[in-house]
Each structure stands twice: as structure tokens, then as C-alpha cells.
Write a structure and sequence with these properties.
216 residues; ten-stranded antiparallel sheet; 2 helices
């Protein structure tokens, strides 16, 4: 009986020791499993760094194109944007320079608040003008709900747009020449007192609009 009790106690002691001996192995396995996310997160975060290599606007439509083909594609896309803009009859002209015709001095325009707005139902005009040999600068600043004889024609180099507007009893005639290749836009404006030529570009947002962005 003593031997069997001793044997039983010994067996229980051996099982307990074995359990204690195995518990660190279980702890190590849990620790190893818990550390797996920490080691696999690093490579998961790497791909966004490589996105810089794919920030070209031609990636999807120009797949397989060489550089010359991509440049030609960009020119076609730009021309299509000009076409859409003019056909919308909802755009703004921002001048970079002005000149009294005929033969006046070309002046640069740096202020971004000058514009000629052609909208669906009205026109907004805020442009500088010159008068006489002294080149005295005056301002045109009016809105007109009277737009007549509007014509827009697609030509070889871009668009030719012309129309008449009035401000009270004063009549104005506007001619736009818009290049679909360079974006250069020339406005010839006949006023009751002077004829002005402005060179600039078109867009469909005001300069202070949060979504303002030039075509180029």
C-alpha cells in the first residue's frame, strides 16, 4: 500500500512538473503568435511609398505609348478641353496684356481681378482700357444681360467667337480668337471710345474660387 501511495504521489508530482515545464513553451508560443502582426505590418506599409513612380497623367490612357506619343496625346486632351469650354458658353477670360489699337504700346496686366466673363445668361466685364497718346488708363466695369448675335465657329487653329453686348446706350463688340494648341486667347473689344486688344487665357472659374485651376 505504501508503495502504491508513493507511486501515485510520484506520478502526480511528475505530471505537475511536466505541466510546469511545458508552461513556458506555451507562453513563448503565445508571444511568438502575438508578434506576427508587428513583423508583417512593415511590408504592408511599403507599397504607398512606391506610388510616386506612377503619378503620370498618361498612365491609364497612354499605356504602351512612347514619350512622343504621350506628348501628342496630352495635346489632344488639351484641345478637347478648350473645345468643351467654348461650347459650354460659360467661361472667363483673364488677360495678361493689353494694347490700344492701332499701334498702342503693349502693357502687361498683373492684377488677377481683371476679367471678361461670358456666361450662359449674361456677360460681366471688368477690364482696363487706354485712351489717347497719354495712355491714360480707364476701367470698364459693368454687367450686361443683353447678348446678341453670338457666333462660335471651329476653325483650323481653334475657335472664333464674336457677339455684341450693351451697357445702357453704349454698344460693344467682342471678338475672341482661341488657340486649341497653346491656349492663347486674344480678345478684340470695340468700345464706343476705343478699340482694345487683350491677350490672355480662358477658364471656367473665378480666380478666388477654391476649385480654380488653369487648364495647363
Amino acid at each position: 500500500m505504501k508503495h502504491s501511495v508513493f507511486f501515485t504521489c510520484g506520478a502526480l508530482f511528475f505530471i505537475a512538473c511536466a505541466a510546469v515545464a511545458q508552461s513556458p513553451q506555451y507562453t513563448l508560443e503565445t508571444s511568438a503568435v502575438d508578434s506576427v502582426p508587428q513583423t508583417t505590418i512593415v511590408p504592408v506599409q511599403q507599397p504607398p511609398v512606391e506610388v510616386v513612380e506612377h503619378t503620370t497623367v498618361y498612365e491609364e490612357p497612354a499605356a504602351g505609348m512612347d514619350r512622343a506619343q504621350r506628348r501628342a496625346y496630352k495635346a489632344r486632351v488639351y484641345a478637347a478641353k478648350i473645345d468643351s469650354l467654348v461650347q459650354s458658353r460659360d467661361y472667363m477670360f483673364f488677360p495678361n496684356s493689353m494694347q490700344q489699337l492701332p499701334g498702342g504700346m503693349i502693357r502687361s496686366i498683373y492684377a488677377d481681378y481683371f476679367f471678361f466673363g461670358m456666361f450662359v445668361d449674361h456677360v460681366e466685364v471688368h477690364l482696363p482700357t487706354e485712351r489717347g497718346i497719354t495712355q491714360y488708363v480707364e476701367m470698364l466695369n459693368f454687367d450686361s444681360m443683353s447678348v446678341r448675335d453670338y457666333r462660335a465657329a471651329r476653325v483650323q487653329w481653334g475657335w472664333s467667337v464674336s457677339f455684341n453686348i450693351s451697357d445702357g446706350n453704349a454698344l460693344y463688340h467682342a471678338d475672341f480668337a482661341v488657340s486649341t494648341a497653346t491656349g492663347e486667347t486674344v480678345l478684340t473689344l470695340l468700345t464706343p471710345d476705343v478699340t482694345m486688344r487683350y491677350v490672355g487665357w480662358l477658364w471656367n472659374k473665378r480666380v478666388n474660387d477654391p476649385k480654380f485651376r488653369r487648364l495647363d
